[in-house]
Amino acid sequence: MRGGHPWVFAESVRSQNRDGRAGELAVIFDRKDQFLAVGLYDPDSPIRVRVLHTGKPQAIGPAFWKQRTAEALARREGLFDHETTGYRCINGESDGWPGLVLDRYGETEVVKIYTTAWLARLAEIVPLLSAGDRLVLRLSRNVREKAAERFGLEDGRVLRGAPFSGAAPFLESGWRFEADVACGQKTGFFLDQRENRRSAGALAAGRQVLNLFSYTGGFSLYAAGGGAAGVCSVDISERALAGARRHFELNRRHPAVARCRHETAQADVFAWLREAPPRRFGLVVLDPPALAKRESERPQALGAYGALMAAAIGRVNKNGILIAASCSARVSAEEFFALARQVARKSGRKFEVLKTTGHAPDHPAAFAEAEYLKCVYMRFPE
Fold it and tell me: What torsion, rounded to 10 degrees, do the Cα atoms 266, 272, 277, 281 define?
């Protein structure tokens, strides 16, 4: 904790003066009974305390939360202009708000809660978090049952502003998008891949593009806008593919998007790579969901990543590019990049690593477990 780690696990607690309730402040003392830290107590999680402050004692109240909000927003000052109105405002522990993220989509904001510790404090923090027309609550799966039982809260509830149905419009690099903030994955969109989408668009000119695990087609649209001759979006969810088609319609006024032929395929990506007709692409984007959420799943995830990359390389044509990403925190960047090189060597094709990337600037990672996103760009000249 003195080194800045923000979690205290249940098995690390030597003793406590009484049972605690979710959301209470837990004051932590060292072996000499000196103040060490204060954090939010969560009896429902293996992460028993999520640290808010270390060092000297400090009052935790409205002034504290207001300052934390201002500090998080200040870190993003100057990052975005009027052409990007979708971004992360608070990134959990890395912004001093453990177990909570806040995303903005135009005039709609979404707060996502990953610990029951925040549920009892929503009335206290909502006025500080919301600056837009609407604030929507999203709940991770592990807290939904407790939220309903104890507080009568459900995933997708509007906490502030008028109720609405449909999606929240926003801009990213001038492109028009819509986020399914009530039901979509994460908070409705994958804001963390913004920089990689921009890079993909810059590499797409004249190429046929394959977007695997496309979700609502963020990479697909950027590729079309970058001059791709055609784009194929593959995802198992028809709802996601409908979102991808919608995003192309929203941006048809752009000549490059209007010219690009966009096709969608509803399929399990693993099966599609095995069974789809042999066809190669100038740019392949491989961005699967997290394949290892627990340490025990890590070996299996590495095998799955390897199989996906091998199959994807088989779809890359001469002088084509593979963009492969992982959002599994359990798989380190070093492991993932080493695996990509190993799989490329086994393919028997010459290759070069163009670059590797990590987190977007609005998604800072202040400790090891927060470093989940990594991406590698590889070109195959033959």
Answer: 90
CB 156 within 8 A of CB 136: yes
10-39 mean pLDDT: 94
Domain ranges of the chain: 7-54, 62-168, 190-380
CATH of domain 190-380: 3.40.50.150
Predicted local confidence at residue 131, as pLDDT: 78
Q: Which two tokens stand for residue 344?
A: 């490329």
pLDDT at 2: 86
CA distance linking residue 183 with residue 89, whole number of Å? 20
Tens digits of residue pLDDT in 165-224: 779 999 999 999 999 999 999 999 999 999 999 999 999 999 999 999 999 999 999 999
Supply the pTM of this predicted model: 0.94
Architecture, CATH, for domain 62-168: 2-Layer Sandwich (3.30)
- Three-state SS for the chain is CCCCCCEEEHHHCCCCCCCCCCCCEEEEECCCCCEEEEEEECCCCCEEEEEEEECCCCCCCHHHHHHHHHHHHHHCCCCCCCCCCEEEEEEHHHHCCCCEEEEEECCEEEEEECCHHHHHHHHHHHHHHCCCCEEEEEECHHHHHHHHHHHCCCCCCEEECCCCCCCEEEEECCEEEEECCCCCCCCCCCHHHHHHHHHHHHHCCCCEEEEECCCCCHHHHHHHHCCCCEEEEEECCHHHHHHHHHHHHHCCCCHHHHHCEEEEEECCHHHHHHHCCCCCEEEEEECCCCCCCCHHHHHHHHHHHHHHHHHHHCCEEEEEEEEEEECCCCCCHHHHHHHHHHHHHHCCCCCEEEEEECCCCCCCCCCHHHCCCEEEEEEECC
Match 């390389």 to its residue by tokens: 313
Task: Say if residue 291's pLDDT is above 90.
Answer: no
